[in-house]
Amino acid sequence: MTVQGKTYQLHEPFYVFATQNPIELEGTYPLPEAQLDRFMFHIIIEHPPYDEELEVARTTTAIQNPQLNRPITGEDLIAFQRLVRKVPVSEPVLRHALDLVRASRAKNNPDAKDFVKKWVAFGASVRAAQYLILGGKARALTSGRYHVSFDDIRALAHPVLRHRIITNFHAQSEGVTTDQIVDRLLEVVPLPRSGM
Q1: Which of 14, 34, 50, 145 is the most buried (most CB within 10 A)?
Q2: Whether 124 contacts 112, CB under 8 Å
Q3: What is d(CA 156, CA 84) in angstroms, rounded to the nearest whole number?
Q4: Pairing of strands 120-122, 166-167
Q5: What is the tens place of the pLDDT at every residue in 164-195?
Q6: Helices 126-142 and 74-86: angle between axes, nearest 10 degrees
Q7: Is 97 in contact with 132 (CB distance < 8 Å)?
Q8: Helix axis angle, 178-188 relative to 91-103, nearest 10°?
Q9: Within 10 A of 160 (CB to CB), how many other CB atoms are there?
């Protein structure tokens, strides 16, 4: 990482987590699309249920003496990353991930659906397909499976695509969100006939 011309060595694993508060935007600027594209997921976190929020209020306003234990090491995380990349993906599942991504693009796409032509300024890049597949591999493992399914890809469509599809003026003026566009993509991009 380089800050003000000085480079700092960051040891693996290195991750960037960013938060976006819709209220406190003064003095900040939205990230350019090319930088947003580097984030694997855009996850929306709503307020917790009442009981959880009550527990947060209770525990954070009392004297605490937390005991922190490190359940895994950085080396463990690197090993997990390697394991995820070893999970096999069938050709139909790979193609489905790419079909979803390509369907989000109107430019130079003669097969673009009317709603994409109407509402999308820029569709998702190939990085979206990479992250759908990598995320699908991790989801499969955490579900106890050793292969990626169509359901894995489709379950990750919103967090992977919502920040990569850039809407145009028509969508914004009609109140159409990227999540609604992803919903439509999931409706119109068919699963391959072979099924999984």
Answers
A1: 145
A2: no
A3: 16
A4: antiparallel
A5: 999 999 999 999 999 999 999 999 999 887 54
A6: 110
A7: yes
A8: 130
A9: 29
* Per-residue tokens: 118: 């109407």
Q: Is 99 left (phi over 0), alpha (psi -120 to 50) or beta?
A: alpha
3-class DSSP state of 100:
helix
Give tens-digit pLDDT for 83-116. 999 999 999 999 999 999 999 998 888 889 999 9
Structure tokens that stand for 123 in this block? 């569709």
Q: How far is CA 117 from CA 76, 156, 177, 180, 193, in A?
A: 45, 23, 15, 14, 27
Query: β-pairing, 6-7 with 120-122?
Result: unpaired
Position with higher pLDDT, 74 vs 134: 134
* Amino acid, single-letter form, for residue 53: E
Is the backbone of residue 112 left (phi > 0), alpha (psi -120 to 50) or beta?
A: beta
Query: In angstroms, rounded to a whole number, what is the distance separating the alpha carbons of residues 129 and 157?
Result: 10
Pair 168, 121: CB distance under 8 Å: yes
From the list 104, 110, 171, the residue with the least C-alpha distance to 132 is 104
List the structure tokens of 126: 């190939």
In whole angstroms, give the CA distance from residue 131 to residue 153.
9
Type of residue found at 193: R
